[in-house]
Amino acid sequence: MTDRWSIHRHLAETADERLLLVRQVPQHIILAGADNDISRRLLAARYPQAVFSEYDSRREFLHTAAAARKGGLWQKLTGKSIPQVCQAMTAPLPEAQADMLWANLSLVLADEPLPVFQKWAHALKTDGLLFFTHFGRDTLAELKGRLNGHGISCETPALIDMHDLGDMLADSGFYDPVVDTAKLELSYRKAATFWQDMDTLGLRRAVIFSDEAEARRLIDGWFAEGEVLSVTLETLYGHAVKKLALPQGENVVRFYPKG
User: What is the pTM for the complete model shown?
Assistant: First the structure.
């Protein structure tokens, strides 16, 4: 059986490498999205003193993450469990509680990223760190083009251009937003593996077919004919820092010594 979490692991490990340049040591980390405990393990190894809380709208993903931790060395040594909350992406998080918010491929569940970024900003303390991974608008371009040739249109409103995401971060209470991109090319020989990945990655939900039943029939038919289906994932890596939030009409006044 294939590892259904391999893409999550690759993106989490790549994002974790960027923390080498971060001097701030977070004490409370919000995991906005469960990924089989992959991100939590990486972050706990880097920040052993950190306390975690985990949120996801998919109850089965939360259960999978909890099961991955159960009986693990960390849990045996600490006797602790991670608080989990099942709620929608746009539901409120505890305000100004976290030093870091980490979201590995959970933004794909949002119909619109902007309100999610706003909720994430409210959850972070001033100068708190946001790190997230996502898929760009060129994801599955080959598949969408091929289906379009059969008269099936494919809309992906949740998959946003990297520059637009940067603008949204700046409009949501963050400064120094950085979003960059890379590409992953995948080849599938079995329909079951392809659809499993589409489910786990959230892309099954993110891609809206004009005729879903016909799209499924065509894709399954290509596999049945022995074709290898190659797809490209445009992966996005983003980070930003939470701005100081002031009441309306107030501004920061700084005094500098002469000389």
Answer: 0.90
